[in-house]
Design brief:
The protein is α+β, with helices and mostly antiparallel strands and 298 residues long. The chain folds into two domains: 1-161, no CATH class; 167-298, no CATH class. Helix content is 45%, strand content 14%. Strand 5 and strand 6 form a beta hairpin.
């Protein structure tokens, strides 16, 4: 559906203050029952309050059209933006799950429990969106969206149980398209950053330094990641504003790993960690639809 990045943006908008890395002083706080009750109450209140606020936003932005007489299912076959929205759903599920897990970890919940509860929160959050979509004549309940949501949250869980997956990060980059700049404010247009699919690239970024054997790793610059990305050509004609069929873009590139920046302050570590989920502009090689080197791929 044309609202792919909603859950991704919602997840990244959650406060990271409660998700600070656990250390000895934090563990000492967790020995206090009063702290555990207070921190868990805060996380629960933030989750409920955030959900209510986001529901109100979605209600105005997406669910204010013609209602369907009942919940209906939409299998969405043949969208011109070539399943780019599914990448957004998967990435949204992943980030909701991981941030939910981090928040619970900051509230003294064990790592294993926080991972599963974070995934459960992501699933519940995204399921309600699909439910309300199903009551809109324009959208409908989308099983493919639900599969993508589950895939994203499932990857966050898999990273907990399989260590090598922790060296792979789902990242994203975005550069606003000409079509969005020209037609994004047109009356009736839904072309906004969350649906500007041609400007979005979804990546898997690999921490090569950690993946290589020690003998080889010393030759690789530790702050550089290797990434593979998926995007599309313009699905909205910049000249006319009409929808057209996009072509897939598969991209290979290098990018900076912010977590490898110097500094070990607890707050700075959290900032670096969150920044590491964004793929900053860097050289890339576009493989499809035509091979082309891009000096500064955004």
């Amino acid at each position: 559906m044309p609202h792919d990045l909603r859950t991704t943006l919602a997840a990244l908008a959650l406060t990271a203050a409660l998700a600070a890395p656990r250390d000895a002083s934090a563990q000492a706080l967790c020995d206090s029952r009063a702290y555990r009750v207070a921190s868990r109450s805060t996380v629960g209140t933030a989750a409920v309050g955030g959900n209510v606020a986001l529901y109100q936003y979605f209600k105005q932005a997406w669910w204010s059209g013609k209602p369907a007489p009942h919940i209906w299912t939409n299998w969405e076959r043949g969208e011109p933006f070539r399943e780019m929205d599914k990448f957004g759903h998967a990435y949204g599920g992943y980030h909701l799950a991981r941030l939910g897990s981090d928040l619970l970890g900051g509230a003294c919940v064990s790592r294993a429990k926080s991972v599963w509860w974070g995934a459960a929160y992501a699933a519940a959050f995204q399921l309600q969106i699909e439910y309300w979509d199903g009551k809109q004549a324009k959208y409908g309940f989308s099983p493919p969206d639900l599969i993508a949501n589950t895939t994203g949250a499932g990857f966050a869980v898999a990273q907990h149980y399989w260590t090598p997956l922790r060296d792979v990060k789902p990242t994203i980059s975005y550069a606003r398209t000409s079509a969005s700049k020209r037609w994004g404010r047109a009356q009736g247009s839904e072309l906004r950053p969350t649906t500007d699919y041609s400007g979005q690239t979804y990546w898997l970024s690999f921490d090569v330094d950690e993946m290589l054997p020690d003998a080889a790793a010393r030759w690789w610059p530790g702050f550089v990641r290797a990434s593979v990305g998926h995007s599309i050509t313009d699905y909205v004609d910049p000249a006319t504003g009409r929808t057209r069929w996009a072509r897939r873009e598969i991209v290979l590139g290098l990018d900076l790993d912010p977590e490898k920046l110097p500094g070990d302050n607890k707050v700075w570590r959290r900032v670096k960690h969150e920044l590491s989920y964004y793929r900053f502009p860097a050289p890339a090689l576009r493989l499809t639809p035509t091979a082309k080197g891009v000096a500064w791929y955004r």
